[in-house]
Amino acid sequence: MFKRKNTIKFSAAIISILFMLSSCQSTKEEVSSDSYNQNTKIEVSNETEITEENTESSEASESTDDTLKTFTSQDSKAQNTWAKNLLTLGNKNDYILMEDTSKAIVRDFAGLKESDLNFLLRVDSNLAGFGCSIMGAYFIAQFDDVARVRIAKAAQQYFDDFENKKLSNKKNVAKNAYGSINYKLNWGTFKSSTPNNGTGPAYLGYEFVKKQPYFIIWSYPLPNDYYEIAKDSTTRESSSVKFYFTRNQLKKLVEILSEENLENYYFSY
């Protein structure tokens, strides 16, 4: 009798948990997507000339730019906004926050969700990129001028393949269909402090989710250079990361990270 009562209680608990999970799933926020039958053409303008010189291997960690080096925490008007809104601890002298914002789609505990992108410039190099929350951590992806050109070219190729119905449903083909870039990744528990960092390859491609395609920028785990300083108080490497973009989100990403937009931003300070 005692075992039977325990069994009944246990079954009731399981049913309650399943009911709560199904309730959560039913109220799950829908994310943006592109219908693959859509014929609307989206064009991306890229003002940067593609040459053999600027398509050589991108060195994200060591890129330099005299214009951007002139911006410091003392002479940038954006720094006050950055410090107040985001960086109150270790990051406030590393980045300049841009006014541009957008969204991407990331994979969270419950599946795909839209996440805000904060665009930024790094004060000690020509890197530009975005910060984004994923799975309870904050990641800052940064790209040099070569990587930004390659992202723009990959985006235009993706738009063409989408419109001409050339996207492959073979995952191994799709995930790095547009090649690779080198990039820098910072991460941490809070967006005000992301001391963990690594550099390495990121891949440009696309992925079908529920029969709808998304452009993706993704990477395998990167070795954490900060581990040599923090030792066992941090991890030896990052997690793998993947950013999903609809066509409109991708178009805006390329526009914000275009050389024309970045130069206008630099010269406004």
List the keywords.
about 270 residues, alpha+beta, 8 helices, 8 strands, about 30% helix, disordered N terminus
What oligomeric arrangement do these chains adopt?
A: single chain
Largest sheet: 8 strands, antiparallel
Q: Provide the β-strand percentage band.
A: 25-35%
Shape field: globular
Give the distance, in angstroms, between the N- and C-terminal Cα atoms.
78 Å
Summing up helix and strand content along with how strands pair, one would put the structural category as alpha+beta
Helix % is 25-40%
What is the tally of beta strands?
8
Average predicted confidence as pLDDT: 77
Order of adjacent strands in the largest pleated sheet: 1-2-3-4-5-6-7-8
- Helix segment count? 8
Low-confidence stretches: 2-28, 42-84
Radius of gyration, in angstroms, nearest whole number: 21 Å
N-to-C SSE string, H for helix and E for strand:
HHHEEEEHHEEEHEHH
How are the SSEs ordered, and which strands pair?
Layout: H1 2-26, H2 66-69, H3 78-85, E1 95-108, E2 111-122, E3 128-134, E4 137-143, H4 145-163, H5 171-174, E5 180-188, E6 196-209, E7 212-219, H6 227-230, E8 241-245, H7 247-256, H8 259-267
Antiparallel strand pairs: 1-2, 2-3, 3-4, 4-5, 5-6, 6-7, 7-8
Helix pairs in contact: 4-7
